[in-house]
Amino acid sequence: EKGSFIDNSANKTECLIKNLAWSNNPVSFNYKIDEASQINTGTLKDIKLFEIYNHAKYVRATLKMDRSSSDLNKLSDTRSPEFVEETLFLEQMVDGDANLYKYVNGTLFRYFFKVGSRNIEQLIYKPYAAEASTMAYNEEYKQQLRITLNCSAISAGKIITTAYKEKDLTDLFLKYNKCVN
What we know:
16% of the residues lie in helices and 42% in strands. By secondary structure, it is α+β, with helices and mostly antiparallel strands.
């Protein structure tokens, strides 16, 4: 499908990208410059951003990510995120002054954000084992949102009721971008 990518030298290339409707975030993609050309592969090492027009946009980011499990049998007993630095393609869900990104790998869902010129950060949400057989949740993402999405159209109550789910977060980021521009 029609799309483009930006390489490490900031060169934009119009191309055809094989749309695999990724259920997990990709680490590479196949593309052709035109119908008659050979298939090439873009990777995390070479590509800053790639987009299938009117479908999906992925941005490369090196960031700290918490991969703590939400499986009851594998819960961490630590409330704090356990960050590891990684380089990933994140799917851009909202584009504007405030950007929302998503990472999916199997049952692991993580959301990230960037406001203005700041770096991309993970929205912190972590289930953990509090006491014997008790699950608790670190919902620090609500505080992150309250601090960074400061706008008259977004009440504290709206942020408190925002679930760590794609629809809730997308709606909130769209509302913020509409408010600021």
